[in-house]
Amino acid sequence: MAPLGPRLGAPRGQARRRCRLRGVGGVVLASAPHPAPREPRRRGAGAVISATRRGLRAIRSLRERRRTELCALLATDSAQAALALHGTPLLLLDPERVRAQYRRLSAALPSVRFHYAVTALPHSAVVDVLAEEGCGFDVASGDELALVRRHGVAAGRLIHTHPVRKPAEIADALAAGVRTFVVDSETELEKFRDAAPDVRVLVRLSFRSPQGGSDASAKFGVGPFAAGRLVARARELGVRVAGFSFHTGRLDDPERLADAVADALTLMRHLEDELGIRFEILDIGGGFPVAYDTDVCSIEEFGAVIEPLLAPHARRLRIIAEPGRILAAEAMALVTSVVGIAERADGRWYHLDDGVHGAYSSVTADDVRPLVYALRELGQTAADSESRRWATLAGPTCDSADVVAREVLLPELAVGDLLASPAMGAYTIAAGSSFNGRAVTPVAVVVQGPSTGPVATRERMPEAVAVA
C-alpha cells in the first residue's frame, strides 16, 4: 500500500502516480492522479555553461547586496558606539529588519497566521517588535514560554510545539494559559487525558526530506496511518484533536511545501469523513529559506505557489505557520577580530575571537556557510583581487574542529583587524555554548540612522536560554 504523498511517511524520491490511503475504518481514499516523473532533459554544453554563468552572477549579486547591507548597519551611530564600548566578538541586532520581514511574509501569505519560532532567536527586542505587529509565538520549552510571557504576550497567542515534554512542563504551560500543543505519540496523548475541555492538540505528521538542508521529520512526526490511529485514540481518551502540524525542514523549493500542504489537507478530509469530526487548525511549520552564500526563492515566490492552495481553506481552517529563520536571520550581523595568524601546510590561517562553539555554531549545527567580509574592504566598490588571498578561518577554542570556513578570499589581515558576517540572526546564539569557559557572544541592539538616544543596549545571552 503506497504512502500518502512523496514525503508523508516516506523519503522524497518515491514516484507518486496515484496515492491511496486506507483509513482507520478500512475505507480507501484515492487522491488526484499525479503524472509519472519525466525523464530529465539532457542539456548540451552550451546550456550548462549558461546556467553556470547565471549561478555565478546570482552569487555575486548576493554578495554585493550583503556588502551594502553591512555597510549601512556598521555606519550607524549605535553600531559604532556598541563596537567602541564592547569590542568583539559582538552581534549587532536591528529589530526593524525583523519587522520588515514579518510584513513581507504576511503580505505573501495572507491566509496564514504566524507564530514566531522563538528558538531561532530568543531575544527581548525580537519578541517586542513581533508582539507589536500582532504576531503569535511558537515556544518549545518552559524558558521560551517565560521569555515571551515576561513581555506581556497574551497566552492565547502562544502554541507549544515540542512533541515531547515532561508532565511538569505541560502543567506549567497550562497554568500560564497555553491551550494548543503538538503531539506525535500515544504516550504524549496520555499526558492530556485530564486536560480541560478547551485544551487542544495537533498531531504532527512526518514529511521526510533527507536530501534537503535539514530533515525535520527524522526525529518527530507520524505517517498517515499512525495519525489516524492517534486521532481515534484521542477520542477514546477525551482529548480534543484540533488538526495537524508538520515541518518539512529547511525549504529550498516551494513545491515541497505545496506537496505537504496538499497531502495534509487530503488526510484531514478523509479522517473528517470517516470519523464524523471537523478539524480546526492546519500548522504548515516553518523552514522558509534564507540566502546565506547562495540565492534562494524569495518570500514572494513562495507565496505565489502556496497561497492559492491555502486560500480556499482559510475560512474553514485556521492556517498557521512557525517562521523562525526567515524572520531572524537577516536582522543580525556578527563582528569578530583576528587574534592569531599562522602559515600551515594548506595555507594562511586566521584565528578569530568567535567560532563554531559561539555565534558561528550554525556552521556545524545547521550546515550554514556564512559570508565573511573584512571591514576595511566593505566600502570598496570593487575588491582588489591582486591583494587578496585564500585563507582558513578558525575559532578561538582548543577544539581542532573549531573551523568557521575554508578557502575564503580575503585581503592581507593583521592581528586586531575586524571581520563581519551578515545574516547571523538565526540559530546562532541560541545554539552557542560556553565551551572552554568562553562567554556566549553578546548582542547589541542597534537602530538605523543617527542615534539620539542612549548607547546600544547589550545582552550577554537572552534571559530564557542562559548557559550555566
From TrEMBL:
Q: Which residues belong to the signal peptide in this entry? A: none
Instruction: Tell me which Gene3D superfamilies the record gives.
Output: Alanine racemase, Lyase, Ornithine Decarboxylase, Chain A, domain 1
Q: Which CDD domains match?
A: PLPDE_III_ODC (cd00622)
* Ranges of residues in domain Orn/DAP/Arg decarboxylase 2 N-terminal: 97-329
Please verify whether the record's keywords include Transmembrane.
Answer: no
Cellular compartments per GO CC? cytoplasm
Family matches, as InterPro entries: Ala_racemase/Decarboxylase_C, De-COase2_N, Orn/DAP/Arg_de-COase, Orn_de-COase, PLP-binding_barrel
Record keywords, A-Z: Lyase, Pyridoxal phosphate
Tell me any Pfam family this protein matches: Orn_Arg_deC_N
User: From which residue to which does any coiled coil extend?
Assistant: none
Q: Which biological process annotations from GO are given for this protein?
A: putrescine biosynthetic process from arginine, via ornithine
Whether Lyase counts among this entry's keywords is: yes
Cofactor(s) needed for function: pyridoxal 5'-phosphate
Q: Which GO terms describe its molecular function?
A: ornithine decarboxylase activity
Instruction: Give the similarity note.
Output: Belongs to the Orn/Lys/Arg decarboxylase class-II family.
**Name the record gives this protein:** Type III PLP-dependent enzyme
What is the native source organism of this protein? Answer: Microbacterium ulmi
